[in-house]
Amino acid sequence: MENKKHGFGSALGFILAAAGSAVGLGNLWAFPYKVSQNGGAAFVLVYIACVVLIGCIVMMAEIYLGKRGKANTVSAYKKVNKNLGFFGVIAIIIPTVIVCYYCVLGGWTLRYAVNSFQPNDALSNANSFANFTSNPIMPIAFTFIFMAITAVIIMGGIKNGIERAAKFLMPILFLIVVFIAIFSLFLGDGVKDGLNFYLNPDFKELGFNGVLAAMGQAFFSLSIGMGTLISYGSYTGKEIKVGKSTFMICLFDSLVALLAGLAIFSSLGALQPDSLQEAHGVGLVYQILPQVFEKMGGFGSVISLLFFIMVVIAALTSVISILEVSVQFICQRYKKKRKSVTIIMAVICFLVSVPITWSVGGAFDGKIILFGYDLLTFLDEIANTVLMPVCAMGACIAIGWFIDKKVRFNPMKTLRALEKDGLELGFFGKIFAVMVKYVAPLVIGVVVVMGIVGKYAEYMLKGLNYSYIVGGALILIAIAVIVYFMFFENKDTGDNHTEEIVESK
């Protein structure tokens, strides 16, 4: 049953909302650095291939899983096969974990946007950045504001809240990134060196590790494996085509990442070439770039404001989507109104974010750590390295192997079963059937195994044991399985129609 009042009102609204979920902080600090360190344009080519052949496949599977189920992640999986419902519980755990630390970064970004026209307090060096993040009150205040904005938008519902915000915010984000990219190209002679560092194709530098990095970036930058696309897909109507929408979302996400890298490395090459090798992670956005903006003179404050508004929008649209997953489930399973559930979940996530803020900022003499990790790193590694790939593989398994119980190894029979079920992909259908059934799960498995192996080596050099991360992820998966089969397998877990009835009272 479709209801425009409680779902996306247009294909454009859905595409912009899903693109907003995909476009996040990883596009702005992880992607540019990985390009620069893994063969430049060679990495970009492999990345685009991975987006088309792997990312798009998993995204289609997740969107269609939600579209056919018209329900939260647990119910969507149950409608394919009751024994797969635990994947839906994992898909709720992941975004709930992520939102608790993502809003901390959103709060930091909000602080920098507000601070753009205060050059005497520009937070543009390591000491001032450390002073801000280690302050026990200021980061929490901005995190609260960021979370409050998120909650207000979600309380408005899908059409009047999330879709309306996406239609307003995403065009602004794109215009800003295009403007800054163009502006950065005219900063001086050093721009050429920055672009050469960023985009010069070098397949020798790419190597096997570069290919794995491209796969991982394509996988994680598209917001797949988080339940968000299942949730958003459930609110789509017949007029929204899964294939076309997926293509547009992937195109938008990749364009933003490429343009952000263009702007960042052009600016660094022109104004701060010594930082080219260090341009990654938190340091890039919150320490190096503010120094670059200061060197632009008076207009630098304007560019700083625009840049951090862009980053705030990217963070906000991502947090909206990941908080929506748990809100949708609770509303439908327990028949509660959206506004009250949103407030409760926002408060819980904010309270959890407080020790995370203190931990990552080193407040209270850096005593808030877990197994040697700050809480943000610990939770981020659990979600990104293990849980998200597991959830993405669940979508591939559900769509590729369980839509028709009689279909097993023949992908063409799988395609006919999917077409009969309602998935229309045209000429791309044959490719999709093979990829979702065999290739995507295999690649996801490789990314997971190699990612864990690489992380073990990386953190061993830091004197940390990565087994705690893997163990924590496995414990959460076990909890999801136990909770599902004990409490949800044989219970009504609700759907969008349930939500519509509750909201209409």
**What sequence of helices (H) and strands (E) makes up the elements?**
HHHHHHHHHHHHHHHHEEHHHHH
Low-confidence stretches: 120-126
Number of helices: 21
Radius of gyration computed on alpha carbons: 22 Å
Question: What portion of residues is helical?
Answer: over 70%
Residue fraction in strands? under 5%
Mean of all residue-level pLDDT scores: 90
End-to-end Cα distance: 18 Å
Question: How many strands in all?
Answer: 2
What does the largest sheet look like? 2 strands, antiparallel
Which outline best applies?
A: globular
Structural class: mainly alpha
- Oligomer kind: single chain
Report strand order across the widest sheet.
Answer: 1-2
Spell out the key features of this protein.
mainly alpha, 21 helices, 1% strand, two-stranded antiparallel ribbon, 2 strands, 505 residues, 77% helix
Short note summarizing the structure:
The chain has 505 residues and is mainly alpha-helical.
Can you offer a commentary on this structure?
This protein is mainly α and 505 residues long. It is 77% helix and 1% strand. Helix 5 packs across helix 20. A hairpin with a 2-residue loop joins strand 1 and strand 2. The protein starts with 10 loop residues before the first helix and ends with a helix. The chain has 21 helices and two strands. Strands 1-2 form a two-stranded antiparallel sheet. The protein is globular.
